[in-house]
Sequence to fold (269 residues):
Amino acid sequence: MHAGSSVALCPPDFELDDGGLYRFSDYQGTLWSWWREFWDEWVPRITGKERYAVVINGDVIDGQVKQSTTNWSVNFEDQARAAIDLLKPVAAEAAEFYIVRGTEAHVGKSAQFEERIARELQAIGHGKTHSRWDLWYRLGDRTIHFAHHIGTTSSTAYEASALCRELVAAFVEAGQWQDQPPPSMCVRSHRHRFCLVSIPTVSGEATIFVTPGWQLHTPFSHRMGQSMRVPQIGGVCISLDGGELVVRKKIWAPKVRNYVSQPATKSTG
Fold:
């Protein structure tokens, strides 16, 4: 979500700690309209009358990475309150609500600000905490493993490479410890672009995917050579159908090209 970033999701007309008012940009207004469509229309249509769990998979706020200037507030309490405003209606509708911890550079050492948000929203935690570094979730007889981080790449041709490595690592780890079967599905985030890899196994398919995000291009993504790659906005629903896990996604691709036309020149005779 990266709440606090001037190119990410933000509530409209948000009151800052000092009493000032932040009014989001046109770009953020588009993200807000997609956010509302996602939760008000798409999720109810996909889930029907079934109860569902919500997993927020890390980087709830943007923080301030390396003295970044692309935050509408560098007060982490402002960012945390914005995230809480965005997620409170979501948590209220969910049968279960979880927050997985993201990158410390964004959410503080030991994800302390994500923990503060998770506690405020009464997320289902582990022990005395309300957030967690990863989540093992049982859906029927299938196991899903959620964690935020996965390797990144600046090349679309290699987007699936890190997913394959992660899936292989899960099988190797399970092979070392026979009482710990591999997950049926792995869910990662961090890269802000949806990608899915699925392979057949003796017990059904093993799948891994990376979620889209709710942030547009940043100076960092431009510097990493991703200027031509469209950031993907949206979310994913996992359901159990006939004993198999089914992935359905809702993704928007923002228009990021700003063409510059050569002005017509007058001919002289």
In short: DSSP finds six helices and eleven strands in the chain. The longest strand covers residues 233-241.
